[in-house]
Amino acid sequence: MKYCAFLRGVNVKGTNMKMVDVCQVFKEVGMEDVNSILASGNIVFSSDKHAADLKVILEKAMSDYFSYEAFLFIKSQEEIEHFWSGNPFEKNEDLHIYTFVGNKEIEGILMKEFDMASKTENERAQIVNGVFYWQVPKGNTLDSSFGKILGKKSMKDQFTSRNINTFEKILKKMSS
């Protein structure tokens, strides 16, 4: 089965790693057809194991190799298509659209945080089929009240986010 591992906190705040090294770690623990998409920690691969087992194997391998506490989320090609196709927002050159990948029911926690946050003009959030989507004006991602949740230490093992365009790139790689 084809999967994508979404690594949390890669190449930010001092956790630097080369994707070629990450891919090698995946190969060394038995993953096949391993490729990286962008430098933000999106690793496409094949395995006959279940996602829950892969999460344990890959987090341990990454933690051991890079000497940090690795958090990653494993999604199948079908799940990634679901993330991509569920986007409720129209493309706009002035706005970013982020999709959140995480633990079961994280979307409710994120929506609660979003509802409590002050918002900029055109900043919106929506849950579609259990997936949390966030639209924010370009240049406001980390400065927005809700954007600050992205770096909360208490949430580091709960989710990671990606720009919606990243999902398109991942799906193209999975289909090739």
From TrEMBL:
InterPro entries (UniProt xref): DUF1697
Record SUPFAM superfamilies: SP0830-like
Superkingdom of source: Bacteria
One Pfam assignment: DUF1697
Name assigned to this protein: Pyridoxamine 5-phosphate oxidase
Organism from which the protein derives: Chryseobacterium piperi
